[in-house]
Structure formats: C-alpha cells, structure tokens
Design goal:
- By secondary structure, this protein is an all-alpha fold.
- The chain contains 20 helices and no strands.
- Helix 2 runs parallel beside helix 6.
C-alpha cells in the first residue's frame, strides 16, 4: 500500500539479515502511495484522537438507553468507514487521516456499551468468562483477518490491498444483521430465554435491572481502585498498540519478512492470545466460585502476568538478531501471557461497580487511548536514524516493557476486587461476592 521511503535502494532491507526470495519479490513492488514515516504515523494515530472524543458520552448514553443499538452503530459505522479507506487514500493522506479520525469516533462507543450490557447479563462468578468470550473476538478476528489480508494484498485485482478493507466491511454488515436479531439490552427484553434463566441471572447479579441511578461521578473519580484500573489500562494498551502497530514493522524492517509471512506470523501471536484468554478466564472464575482465592487476589495476579511476562519476552525478541524463529517464539509466548488481561483489569470495573461499568470503562478507555497515537510516534522517534537497526528497535521494546511493568506493579499495589460502597445494589438483591 505504501512505498518504502528509499524505494529501489539496498537500504530497503536490513543488510545484516538474510532476505528470502519472497521478500525480494515484494520489495520490487514499490507500493501505491509515497508517504513518509511521519505521515504513516499520523495516519495510524488519527484513529485514537477520534477514539478519545466519544468514549465518555457513549458510557453516559448506554446508561440511559442500553447498549444494544449503540454497540451495533459503533461496529457498523466503523465497518462502513473501513470500506471507504481505499478511495480516501487515493484522494490524499489528509483525507485518510480524517477518515481514520471518524473511525475512532465510531468505534469508541463499542466498549462502554459492551461493558454496560455485560453488567446486566453476567452472574457474579461468571464475569471473567463472559467478558472474555465477548472481548476475545478481537484476537479471534485477527487470527483469521491478518492472514486473509496478507493474501489479498498479493492479489492483482485492484492492486490487492483494497480488497482487505472491502472484505472486512462486508463481514461487518452481515454481522450487524445478526446482531439486530439476536442481541438484547438485558434479560427482561429477551423474548426467547426461559424464566428460569432470567431468574438465575437476576439472583446472581449485583444490578437492579429496573433501577435508574444517578452516576456517582465524584465517588468514581476519587476511588483509588478506579485509578489503578486507569494505570493498568494505559500500560496494557501501550503493549497492545505496540504489538499491533509496530511489531509488523519490526518483522519487515529487521527480520526481512514479506507481508504474507507477516500476516501468518501475526495470526500465530493472536492465536496464542485467544487460547490463553479462554483458559485464564475459566480458571479465574473457577477459583473465585470455589472461593479458593479472592477476586482482588486473582485480578492482581492476572494483571502481573499480562504485563510482566509479555514485557520480558518483548525485550527478548529484540535480542533475537536474525533468528526469526527465536523472535517469533518470544512474541508468541509474550502474547500467550498477554491474554490474561481479559481476566484482569478488563473485568475490574464490573467488580467495583457493575451498575456503572459502562461509564467507568469509558473513562479509563479514554485515557488508555493515548498510547494509540503515542506508541507509533515513540517507534518513529527511537528508530528515526535507522529503521533497520536491531539496537534501536530494542530500545523501543524496552520502552513498551517499562510502561507495562509500571502498570502491573501499580495495579498490584492499588487495585481491588471489592464492590464499592457507593455501588451497592438495593437490599432485595444478592451481594454474592468473595473479595
């Protein structure tokens, strides 16, 4: 899609690592657009500027009207805008930056509305499993989409690369039709579940489904565990965005992998993340329900695992030299343990205040969007002298790991799994927890 800044020269690849035949063939295609690394960073970061704007309004709206239609709008809108990426790219980089900004605004409404809905559907000791099953759609989607896009980029039709955007948009439209017919805001609205299931959900919930409560802004913003989530969220997103945005660049610029290999190797890392997220969530809720551990303990332990270990293996990947197998192994192991974050801070707003989970997540996710545009700029700054330098990329990985470790340790010190006093349900509801 984008030309190399020094296209056609021997500087297009890292001369210290072997170049495969597929890499040589891919380098002969100079790409469609002649954009500098700075412009590319601005395109990548524009999404997260838009992502900052609509988070908190989405959390508020979800608390008033429910999450179903808001979530559906966010996914559908992002899908349609994704299909507009190729024509906007041809119009110019500024048009694409504007489109990416709008994509950020539409996608930002999804997580607050999703957490609002989960709070009304998940029994107390099934929070980790339900959140993970829903949220792990991200790594599950990457598992299939990245190899598909990598393949489509090699197709001659329409220069190849636009096909990936059109395919994703088409899948989103199909998903939206299914969503409208099968998703509901809460158990009371669902016409097809049994009364026994409705009763079970309500009995084991910490939310009064029929109660509209004013949002306790002051209590939320002055709660220490809330700020622990903020720090943890920022640190994990820094690792996430670093992996998503920067790791493909590392594989290409340092290890000389072509885009097709990049797609399949990226899919491998997300497969590891997906598998571990399912394993860790089931283990977490099993231990909680049997009261072997407290919610506070297991959330903190999961947060340490998903930041300390991935950060370590991210750094180790930088010392792999030209050994692509070692580098990919490090990345895959790191992403396996990264999957534990779905049972850590991602669920924690539902532990602290399930009635206000949507608004809490909207605030933390707003702050946590900052790494989305900071991470690419960090990589651009650190590797500005030589994008093929293993040593410079190693410095970037240390930055990512350091932020991750800081977040893990902060959550360890300040985090909590206790239902907050200002979020207690009415006396008629169960408060089935083990803090």
């Amino acid at each position: 899609m984008v030309k190399s800044e020094e296209s056609g020269s021997e500087n297009d690849v890292n001369q210290n690592c072997p170049v495969g035949s597929s890499q040589n063939s891919s380098k002969s295609d100079d790409g469609t657009f002649d954009w500098s690394s700075s412009q590319q960073a601005n395109v990548m970061g524009a999404f997260y500027y838009g992502y900052l704007i609509t988070q908190i309004p989405a959390g508020y709206v979800a608390s008033k009207i429910g999450g179903k239609h808001l979530f559906g709008f966010g996914i559908l809108g992002t899908g349609i805008l994704t299909m507009l990426t190729p024509p906007m790219s041809y119009l110019g980089v500024r048009w694409l930056i504007g489109l990416r900004f709008l994509e950020g605004m539409t996608e930002a409404v999804t997580y607050p509305s999703f957490h609002h809905m989960i709070g009304r559907w998940a029994p107390t000791f099934e929070l980790s499993i339900m959140v993970t099953l829903a949220a792990s759609g991200g790594p599950f989607g990457n598992l299939f989409i990245q190899p598909l896009v990598g393949y489509l980029c090699s197709v001659d039709l329409l220069h190849g690369w636009p096909l990936g955007f059109y395919a994703i948009g088409a899948l989103v439209i199909i998903w939206y039709i299914i969503w409208l017919n099968f998703a509901y805001n809460n158990p009371d609205e669902h016409p097809r579940i049994s009364e026994d299931e409705k009763s079970y959900i309500k009995l084991h919930s910490q939310i009064d489904q029929n109660q509209q409560r004013a949002i306790p802004w002051k209590n939320i913003l002055t709660a220490v565990p809330f700020w622990a989530i903020v720090v943890a969220h920022v640190s994990v997103n820094f690792i996430t965005y670093g992996m998503m945005s920067c790791m493909p660049q590392y594989l290409s610029n340092v290890l000389n992998f072509d885009i097709k290999a990049n797609g399949f190797l990226s899919a491998l890392t997300w497969l590891c993340c997906f598998v571990s997220s399912l394993l860790s969530s089931n283990l977490t809720d099993f231990l909680r329900s049997r009261r072997y551990v407290t919610t506070t303990f297991i959330r903190k332990m999961n947060q340490l695992i998903c930041t300390i270990i991935p950060g370590l293996f991210l750094v180790l990947a930088g010392y792999a030299g030209c050994n692509s197998t070692a580098a990919v192994t490090c990345i895959a192991i790191g992403m396996f343990f990264f999957g534990f974050h779905y049972s850590a801070f991602i669920c924690n707003d539902l532990d602290l205040a399930p009635q206000f989970a949507g608004i809490i997540f909207s605030i933390t996710n707003t702050v946590a969007a900052i790494p989305g545009f900071v991470a690419p700029l960090v990589v651009e700054f650190v590797t500005r002298d030589d994008v093929h330098s293993e040593e410079l990329w190693r410095h970037a990985f240390y930055v990512f790991a350091g932020v991750g470790w800081t977040g893990g340790l902060t959550f360890m010190l300040l985090g909590s799994g206790k239902l907050q006093p200002w979020a207690q349900p009415s006396s008629s509801l169960t408060t089935e927890t083990f803090h």
